[in-house]
Specification:
The complex is a heterodimer of chains A (about 200) and B (about 200).
Chain A: H1 9-19, H2 31-38, H3 42-59, H4 68-77, H5 90-127, H6 136-141, H7 148-154, H8 160-163, H9 187-195
Helix pairs in contact in A: 1-3
Chain B: H1 2-21, H2 25-33, H3 37-59, H4 62-79, H5 89-109, H6 123-129, H7 132-145, H8 148-159, H9 164-171, H10 175-196, H11 198-201
Helix pairs in contact in B: 2-3, 3-4, 3-5, 4-5, 5-9, 7-10, 8-9, 8-10, 9-10
Classes of the chains: A mainly alpha (about 200), B mainly alpha (about 200).
Chain lengths: ~200, ~200
């Protein structure tokens, strides 16, 4: 609003209704325009005088004075120091937050290797080879093999070359240790043969 | 080296003097936040009268106003360290005091009717005398009969001298809403007081 031009009458009336007749109570940015209107409008002056009478009556209600003892009462009621929990200086609160954060990171630093180790153990356990569900002996019992030789070939504890007769191999240069002579079967293999 | 030490010592002395001389609200609140009771005392001495006056008009009770003032300054003491100078201390104190007053009024409303004082009937003899003290009692009684928000708005702007933006901030409303409250409150006051004080407010 242009402070050099007078305020509209309607706004001046609203100003008086709200703030009364004292210019120091009017909004600072409207004061000059209101004064400009007052200087040239008898109607505005009449409204201002009416509003001033209400101000005068309102001012006849003096404020309650504070008793002198109240200051001492307030000072006596305050704790010696502002509450440490909620009202520490801002710098102290910031330092405390930083301490808490660094403490939390220390815990994270300790926990991470432990968690990684646990995850590795679980992964290794998951990937470990599982023992076969059925041993060759069991498979023989349920008829999965055609001949007793198949059983012997599948036994991990028996070296097949040592146990299988070397029919047809007569050359020691080829590794035929005892060409032409069948080697005795081991006791366990005999048991297998008997069982089968 | 000696010159440097001398300069440092002088600088520290100036700073101490500066702290002693600077008694702005902001500085005193900052010192209060560190537990400086002397700074707190100065704030109490500076603002107590206005807080009591404000609370007394809102509550219509001096005893209640002193309780509100005490609690308001206790909160200042405990919150000073966290103080952010985004608003004037006076505005902040008015807001704290208003909240406490509203709590106080809420508790009073919950009391049995027998415990609530009846509004005083001024009576014809009072009107005839029209002494200033009696007029003041009329005004206070009329203020107490206003809706709380209108009473607070008039108290903040007319009696406490807050700027409109500050009063709106205390009430947490817009300036336009504040002006509406003020206009309605003053209109009601005029109507009630005109009947009691026709010689002062009888003419339009």
């Amino acid at each position: 609003m242009d402070h050099r031009s007078p305020m509209p009458l309607a706004r001046f009336r609203a100003l008086l209704d709200a703030y009364g007749a004292q210019p120091e109570r009017w909004p600072a940015d409207e004061r000059e325009a209101a004064r400009a209107l007052l200087g040239q409008s008898p109607e505005a002056q009449r409204w201002r005088d009416t509003s001033a009478r209400l101000d005068t009556v309102l001012d006849l209600a003096p404020p309650e004075p504070a008793s002198s003892a109240l200051i001492e009462r307030i000072l006596a009621a305050t704790p010696q120091q502002p509450s440490a929990a909620t009202h520490r200086p801002a710098a102290a609160r910031r330092a405390s937050r930083l301490t808490r954060r660094s403490r939390a990171w220390r815990y994270v630093g300790r926990a991470l290797p432990l968690a990684a180790a646990a995850a590795l153990v679980l992964w290794l356990l998951r990937e470990a080879p599982q023992p076969p569900e059925h041993t060759p002996v069991t498979l023989a019992e349920i008829g999965s093999y055609d001949t007793p030789t198949d059983v012997l070939l599948d036994l991990p504890s028996i070296e097949a070359l040592d146990r299988v007769p070397t029919f047809g191999c007569t050359s020691t240069g080829l590794g035929c240790l005892d060409a032409g002579a069948p080697r005795p079967l081991s006791h366990s293999a005999l048991d297998l043969e008997t069982d089968a | 080296m000696r010159q440097c030490l001398t300069r440092l010592a002088r600088g520290a002395g100036d700073e101490r003097d500066g702290q002693l001389l600077d008694d702005s609200d902001e500085t005193l609140v900052r010192r209060t936040g560190t537990g400086d009771r002397e700074a707190f005392r100065r704030l109490v001495e500076r603002h107590l009268g206005r807080v009591v006056a404000f609370a007394a008009r809102v509550l219509g009770s001096r005893a209640g106003a002193e309780d509100v003032a005490q609690e308001s300054f206790l909160r200042l003491w405990t919150h000073a360290a966290a103080w952010q100078p985004t608003a004037r201390l006076g505005t902040w104190l008015h807001r704290v005091a208003l909240n406490l007053c509203l709590d106080h009024l809420g508790r009073a409303r919950n009391l049995p009717l027998d415990d609530v004082a009846e509004p005083r009937d001024p009576g014809p003899s009072l009107l005839a005398r029209a002494q200033a003290r009696e007029i003041g009692a009329h005004v206070n009684a009329a203020l107490q009969e206003l809706p709380t928000q209108q009473r607070v708005a008039i108290t903040l702007c007319h009696y406490q001298g807050l700027r409109n933006a500050e009063a709106a901030e205390v009430l947490d409303i817009s300036v336009e809403a504040l002006e509406s409250l003020l206009a309605r409150g003053r209109r009601t006051l005029r109507a009630r007081l005109r009947d009691l004080l026709p010689d002062l407010l009888g003419e339009e």
